[in-house]
Specification:
This protein has 116 residues and is of the alpha+beta class. It has a single domain, classed as Orthogonal Bundle (Arc Repressor Mutant, subunit A). 53% of the residues lie in helices and 16% in strands. It contains five helices and five strands, in the order ββααβααββα. It has a three-stranded antiparallel sheet. The chain has a two-stranded antiparallel sheet with strand order 1-2. Helix 2 packs across helix 5. It is globular, with a radius of gyration of 18 Å. 12% of the residues are buried.
Length: 116
């Protein structure tokens, strides 16, 4: 922030800074979708490139139905997309920002683990 930028006013009653409205419900929904170790693993795998469900199932050692359910949740929040090719379903990460979000979260965890 530069010296000329205005600091957002603080709304004491609401306990938050006033200013541009954020869709906190949508962000919370996204974070809930990511709040599962298996879904985080799926995001990491898909950050490397498009994969079939069978490949994801093998990589994670999970049942196909479990992987599919996790992928549906990630698709519902707009993180992944599916492409059908014959009988195969290919999934890809459509929001690379999510991979950056996870990398940042991992750095926070690592830093907190090293904190006194």
């Amino acid at each position: 922030m530069t010296m000329n930028e205005e600091v957002p006013a603080h709304d004491e009653a609401a306990g938050r800074a006033s200013g541009p409205a954020h869709d906190h419900d949508a962000v919370a929904h996204l974070l809930r979708a990511l709040a599962d170790p298996n879904r985080l693993a799926l995001v990491h795998l898909l950050a490397e490139g498009e994969r079939r469900v069978v490949d994801l199932t093998a990589a994670l050692g999970l049942a196909q139905s479990t992987v599919s359910a996790h992928l549906v949740m990630l698709r519902d929040v707009g993180v992944v997309a599916v492409r059908r090719e014959g009988r195969a379903s290919w999934y890809r990460l459509v929001r690379p920002e999510v991979a950056h979000l996870l990398a940042d979260a991992e750095r926070v965890v690592d830093a907190a683990a090293g904190a006194p």
